[in-house]
Structures are given as C-alpha cells and as structure tokens.
Amino acid sequence: MSGIARVEVPTAFWRKRRSGAITDEDAAVLVQAFEWDWLGDAYAVVPVVDAVLTHAARLAARHPLRAYDAVRLASALAAHAADPEISTFACFDERLASAARVEGLVTLP
C-alpha cells in the first residue's frame, strides 16, 4: 500500500459522510479502524520516495492518471518488483484500474 493511503483512505470516508452516503458515526468508526490498522502491522506500506515519484511521473505520461493515482500505481509496481507474488491492485477508478492492468497487475473489484 502506498504511503499516501494514510491521507487518501480517511479522506474517502469523510467524503462519503459529506455526500450523505454514511453517517458521522460510521465515518468516525471507519477512520479509527483504518488508523488502528495503519499503526499496527496490517499493511505493508511502500514509502513515497524519489524512485516511486519518478516512476509515477513516467506513468502519468503513459496513462491518463491524476497525480495521487500515479503515485498509488507506482507504489504497487514497486511492491510487485520487490515481491512478484504481490500482483493484485484494488481500486474503484476505471482509468486507474485500466492503467494497472496495462502495467501487468490484476485488479479488484
């Protein structure tokens, strides 16, 4: 998981709360659960380092990605390069999923 998930995941929960899709309480519970997992060892986190950012910039030239999405994909590809068994990429954005598939990852959902 990319280090930027530390910001992206809670942001997504609060955006859902603002849109009325979930309650304040649900958003708070989800954010707290994510933060608990983040501080524990539930996730292998790929730090956002220069090599990841350079790869993200190159991915943005090849695919129609937003900046954070390019960083997420570059992080996933760095994890895959370190451990080829890591090959599944989860996202709900079709442009990002398409780019991930072109880059050789399997996507969820």
Distance between the amino and carboxyl termini: 16 Å
Which parts are unreliable, with pLDDT below 50 for 5 consecutive residues or more? none
Helix residue percentage: 55-70%
The neighbouring-strand order within the major sheet is 1-2
Q: How many helical elements? A: 5
Largest sheet: 2 strands, parallel
Number of beta-strand segments? 2
| Radius of gyration over C-alpha positions, nearest whole angstrom | 15 Å
Structural class per helix/strand content? Answer: mainly alpha
Strand percentage lies at 5-15%
Task: Estimate nothing, just give the exact number of structural domains.
Answer: 2
3D shape: globular
Order of helices and strands: HHHHEHE
Taking all residues together, what is the mean pLDDT?
96
Overall description:
Helix content is 63%, strand content 6%. The protein contains five helices and two strands. The chain is globular, with a radius of gyration of 15 Å.
Give a short synopsis of this structure.
The chain has 5 helices and 2 strands; from the N terminus they run H-H-H-H-E-H-E.
Topology:
Blueprint: H1 5-19, H2 24-39, H3 50-62, H4 67-82, E1 88-90, H5 94-102, E2 106-108
Helix pairs in contact: 1-2, 3-4
